[in-house]
């Protein structure tokens, strides 16, 4: 488990941009493609983000940007939708479970054929022009909202239409004006993000036939947003660190301080598994919740899940999922709730501020592990209610 050195209580975050104003923080975690159940790796990222959002919100103005609309345009999503329509026609997805739809996604990923660009183009146009979402994705997002409510997670707009502020060509033009875009489309080639002068490799962001990848979609969303914030914080899978290094390099000159927080996935039986391979049965959010609620009340489940996925599993990915450790955390949560005093001496903001370094956001790992320290006073009810138990 990765640990951080102790933080001095006097550590200070950056000053607000205007005297007397609260800092503005843009929290931008990686999105999850709505095509399968929420796995332990997904839950880990969601809990890290939620605790960071709620804790930092006590100290700063936080915008939690989690737009599925922006990333529906990736091939990963559009190709699945095309596969569903091609193989199942006008199927009724409204009664299917996440597992049912996830099984279709696994079949799609295992199929040897890939849809050509012209087959995906109508789907992209429907998303761009009308905010259309495939019924299978709408069904999954609706089910996720139910899990969010049971877990006490903030819903950043799972079913909301949240288009990016720039069109693809507008985003590319902004990059081109800064000398960051290498566009070979006139020669029949792709488009690259070019940060080679900073010692970073070329990264393709648009294919030769016009399909944007995740990074291109992120740039459409973040280029117009970043200048309005003092700090931008990314939370993402460790495997995507090269792309987020590029994003940070692009956005930092626009004004904000940019921070990258990679969060490791959760191995199962010692192996990191991709959701595209399945294998989530009994480990998905619904199954874990049902098992936890069988023996514990909702407050203990919310707190115990956060103790497990943040403090116990830690920021790395060396610790496999262990049901017995999750149950220990649920029991520990019951004890913490039973022993929580109504309030503590220092104000809540002061207690939260010590879990920052040279940044505005509150580190969820440092904060959550602090709840488990043996020789500290029990966490007060106000901290638990504001950060860990929110409905």
Main beta sheet strand tally, sense and closure: 4 strands, parallel
Low-confidence stretches: 1-12
Q: Largest beta sheet: what is the strand line-up?
A: 2-1-6-7
Please tell me how large the radius of gyration is: 22 Å
Number of strands: 7
How much of the sequence is in beta strands? 5-15%
Overall outline? globular
Report the span from N to C terminus: 30 Å
Oligomeric state of the chains? single chain
What would the average pLDDT be, to the nearest integer?
92
The helix tally amounts to 15
What class would the helix/strand composition place it in? Answer: alpha/beta
Instruction: Name the helix and strand elements from N-terminus to C-terminus, one letter apiece.
Output: EHEHHHHHHEEEHEHEHHHHHH
Helix share bin: 40-55%
Question: Would you give an account of this structure?
Answer:
With 391 residues, this protein is of the alpha/beta class. It has a domain at 24-163 and 266-388. Helix content is 45%, strand content 9%. The protein has 15 helices and 7 strands. It has helices spanning 40-57, 68-71, 75-88, 98-110, 117-130, 135-151, 168-177, 214-225, 241-251, 285-293, 298-312, 323-339, 348-353, 364-370, 381-388; strands at residues 24-29, 61-64, 181-183, 191-193, 203-206, 231-237, 257-263. The strands form 2 sheets. A 4-stranded parallel sheet has the order 2-1-6-7, sandwiched between helices. α1 links the parallel β1 (24-29) and β2. α1 crosses α11, α3 packs across α5 and α11 crosses α12 (323-339). The chain is globular, with a radius of gyration of 22 Å.
């Amino acid at each position: 488990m990765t640990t951080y050195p102790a933080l001095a209580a006097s550590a200070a975050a950056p000053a607000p941009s205007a005297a007397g104003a609260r800092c503005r923080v843009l929290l931008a975690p990686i999105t999850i493609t709505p095509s399968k159940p929420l796995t332990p790796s997904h839950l880990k990222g969601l809990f890290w983000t939620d605790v960071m959002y709620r804790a930092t919100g006590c100290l700063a103005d936080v915008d939690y940007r989690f737009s599925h609309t922006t990333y529906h345009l990736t091939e990963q999503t559009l190709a699945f939708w095309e596969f569903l329509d091609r193989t199942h026609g006008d199927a009724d997805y409204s009664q299917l479970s996440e597992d049912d739809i996830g099984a279709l996604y696994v079949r799609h990923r295992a199929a040897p054929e890939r849809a050509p660009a012209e087959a995906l183009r109508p789907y992209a146009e429907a998303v761009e022009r009308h905010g259309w979402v495939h019924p299978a994705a709408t069904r999954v997002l609706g089910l996720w909202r139910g899990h969010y409510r049971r877990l006490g997670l903030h819903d950043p707009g799972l079913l909301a239409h949240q288009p990016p502020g720039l069109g693809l060509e507008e985003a590319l033009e902004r990059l081109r004006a800064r000398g960051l875009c290498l566009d070979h489309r006139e020669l029949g080639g792709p488009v690259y993000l070019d940060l080679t002068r900073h010692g970073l490799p070329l990264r393709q962001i648009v294919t030769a036939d016009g399909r944007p990848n995740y990074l291109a979609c992120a740039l459409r969303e973040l280029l117009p947003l970043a200048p309005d914030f003092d700090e931008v914080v990314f939370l993402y899978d460790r495997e995507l660190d090269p792309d987020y290094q590029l994003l940070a390099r692009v956005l930092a000159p626009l004004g904000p301080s940019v921070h990258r927080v990679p969060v490791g996935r959760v191995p199962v039986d010692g192996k990191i598994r991709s959701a595209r391979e399945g294998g989530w049965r009994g480990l998905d959010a619904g199954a874990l919740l049902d098992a936890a609620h069988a023996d514990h009340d909702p407050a203990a489940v919310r707190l115990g899940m956060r103790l497990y996925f943040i403090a116990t599993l830690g920021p790395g990915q060396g610790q496999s999922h262990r049901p017995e450790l999750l149950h220990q955390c649920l029991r520990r949560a019951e004890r913490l709730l039973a022993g929580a005093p109504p309030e503590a001496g220092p104000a809540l903001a002061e207690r939260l501020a010590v879990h920052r370094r040279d940044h505005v956001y509150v580190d969820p790992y440092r904060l959550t592990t602090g709840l488990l320290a043996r020789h500290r006073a029990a966490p007060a009810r106000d901290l638990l209610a504001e950060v860990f138990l929110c409905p």
